[in-house]
Amino acid sequence: MEQLWLTIKFLLLGLFQGLTEPIPISSSGHLLIAQYFLDVEIEGSNSTFALLVNSASLIAVLIIYREDIKRLVINGLKFFKEKTPETRRDFMFIVYLVVATIPAGIIGVLFQDTIDSYLSTIVTVGITLVVTGLALWFIRNMRGQRKDGNMTMKDAWIIGGAQAVALIPGISRSGATIVAAMARGINQETALRFSFLLFIPVSFGGAVLSITDIVNDDNLSTMAVPYIMAFVGSLVASYFSLKWFMNIMAKGQLKYFAIYCFIVGPLVVLAWFLLN
């Protein structure tokens, strides 16, 4: 019975992570909230759990954006032989993705342990959710006109910097990058695509850095079934959540996520003070 409950718990956590990963409300922040207020602890290695659920979200992104990825790869390689406007646009889009990955990569390597030690708290999440809400509210009515071919190196650095800030729990990675892109006058479709294609190298890099911890996870064999259920739950939830979010973006309804953050953030802080 205990093993069954453990498996159900991990399935629910996987579903929860997958649901919140694509939408701009911070999956890491919400996992902290769930674990704190539901008194849930992740047995085994946190790195193993994080790798599995993030990898599941990565697979969902790869499935949904497979045609864009295919086009970028083909045209990116073609650019070295055929320098047409189309191949140049896609080649530069790849370059911008690489550049935008750098800030979070550097900050993550240098300060991730410090962030985890000092900022992974419920109070931090409550405050940063409000910050996320303010950022979303700021760009809620923006309708940029710039598309893939109109992006610049400055755009890439700014969006990359926003992604680095999102290493703080409660700051949504998708929200930060989309806000930065739209604030630069980039249209919603391109902002969304760039944000989630940018998730690919970040997620892959995080997986590589976690390999050692996973190999040394003493609970890997006994936790196999719960880990698998977390992976499956995250994969399914990430896929449908991202599809839903793409529809929300097309309708320009980001304000509802801002309102959600304005409500949940203060409630989390208030609840923490009442319980401590």
Automatic annotation (TrEMBL):
InterPro entries the record matches = UppP
What are the protein's GO molecular function terms? undecaprenyl-diphosphatase activity
Q: Which residues cross the membrane?
A: 44-65, 91-111, 117-139, 191-212, 224-242, 254-275
The answer to whether the entry has keyword Membrane is: yes
Its placement in the membrane is given as: Multi-pass membrane protein
Could you tell me what reaction this enzyme catalyses? di-trans,octa-cis-undecaprenyl diphosphate + H2O = di-trans,octa-cis-undecaprenyl phosphate + phosphate + H(+)
Q: Does the keyword Membrane apply?
A: yes
Localization, per the record, is: Cell membrane
One Gene Ontology CC term in the entry: plasma membrane
Instruction: List the EC numbers from the record.
Output: 3.6.1.27
Keyword set for this entry? Answer: Antibiotic resistance, Cell membrane, Cell shape, Cell wall biogenesis/degradation, Hydrolase, Membrane, Peptidoglycan synthesis, Transmembrane, Transmembrane helix
GO BP: any one term: regulation of cell shape
Which PANTHER family does its entry note?
A: UNDECAPRENYL-DIPHOSPHATASE
In its miscellaneous comment, the UniProt entry states: Bacitracin is thought to be involved in the inhibition of peptidoglycan synthesis by sequestering undecaprenyl diphosphate, thereby reducing the pool of lipid carrier available.
Which family does the record assign? Belongs to the UppP family.
State its role.
Catalyzes the dephosphorylation of undecaprenyl diphosphate (UPP). Confers resistance to bacitracin.
Name this protein carries in UniProt: Undecaprenyl-diphosphatase
Source organism per entry reads Planococcus rifietoensis
Recall the taxonomic lineage recorded for the source organism. Answer: Bacteria, Bacillati, Bacillota, Bacilli, Bacillales
